[in-house]
Write a structure and sequence with these properties.
By secondary structure, the chain is mainly α. It contains 2 helices and no strands.
Length: 73
């Protein structure tokens, strides 16, 4: 019985550390996503100022559609 009691705190400690790491990774992913979104917006604005319309090939459209479907877009 004593062995089980000493293992439990280490499991709880590990779970807490794992949750902290998962939260940190989630924040980093969100930071990267926000950066890429802002970068895309800036590039679109620059193209619009030059009256350039983004021309996508069918392959590019399918690629975006496939990725967007996973996001519900």
């Amino acid at each position: 019985m004593k062995t089980q009691l000493t293992i439990l705190p280490s499991v709880v400690g590990f779970a807490s550390e794992l949750a902290a790491i998962a939260g940190w990774l989630n924040r980093k992913q969100l930071d990267v996503t926000n950066y890429l979104h802002a970068e895309n917006e800036i590039l679109k604005e620059q193209l619009e100022k030059q009256d350039v319309k983004l021309a996508l090939s069918n392959t590019q459209r399918r690629k975006l559609a496939k990725c967007g479907k996973k996001l519900g877009r």
